[in-house]
Amino acid sequence: MSSLRLCAGSLIIATALCIHAPVVHADCRGPEPGTIVANPNRPTVANPADITQYGVLELEYGYERDEARLDQYQTNMGGLLKFAVTCNLEFRWNTTSFVNQSVSGSSQSGIGDNWLGFQYRLHRQSDRLPALAFSYSLKFPSASASKGLGSGRYDHQFTFLASKDVWGTHFDFNASLFRIGRLAGNGSDHNGEFNLAFTHSVYKKLAFTGEFYGDTRLGYSTPAYASGLWAISYAVTPRLVFDSGMDHGLTPGSPYNRRILVGLTYSIADLYTH
């Protein structure tokens, strides 16, 4: 019930800000015509501290295939819808529109969970300091628990983000705290996640990305683990970016041995100019 109240309050605040943002932030200019630039969060687990351009609605969507072992895998299709309602505040809706799990030849399919939240930029990048931000997301358990596609519980994620450009390479660091609803009984468990991603231009519109991340132990059944990700991205236009990569477990506790992903980021429009 507390999660539902928190969500209702967030939606009310979000609606009010969306209505009044163009007036309150009249001194905050959006992108000039023809200068919209995508701000991809994918394909890394870490997100950049900088948000989407002011007033811009942006979509990320992709396909993933997770392989835990030879006879167990999962495929997902989903994305992230972002809108910069003010200069420093972005609202985020992360959804998994399709999930398929296969274990020893038996499979289950359905929709996945949905996450609704926001990201607030505390400080823009300067010569000495990185861009700094804080984000919060609430998971709505829309995935079927009876099919094993989800937990059926509400989860929370609190994240501190920092981003900096150093000698032509962009770095993103995230530190997250998760509050995960227990599968049996009441209450929740907690664990942390740490991410460090870097992106460097390879040739013109082609860029290379690497990331190392890991989670601490969750409860008594889920061990700590570390993983690595390697990806490339190509900017077809400034507002359309394609990406592809592979994620692999570095320790035995990783939830999968290999994860293949491919997707895109597209800045749809500057809503405030319309």
Outline the structure in words.
With 274 residues, the protein is mainly β. It has a single domain (2-270), classed as Beta Barrel (Porin). The chain is built from one helix and 13 strands. The chain has one helix at 2-24; strands spanning 56-69, 72-84, 89-103, 106-110, 114-123, 131-140, 155-166, 169-181, 188-203, 206-215, 225-237, 240-249, 258-270. A twelve-stranded antiparallel barrel has the order 1-2-3-5-6-7-8-9-10-11-12-13. The chain is globular and about 50 Å long. Mean pLDDT is 88; it is low at 10-26.
Please outline the helices and strands.
Blueprint: H1 2-24, E1 56-69, E2 72-84, E3 89-103, E4 106-110, E5 114-123, E6 131-140, E7 155-166, E8 169-181, E9 188-203, E10 206-215, E11 225-237, E12 240-249, E13 258-270
Antiparallel strand pairs: 1-2, 1-13, 2-3, 3-4, 3-5, 5-6, 6-7, 7-8, 8-9, 9-10, 10-11, 11-12, 12-13
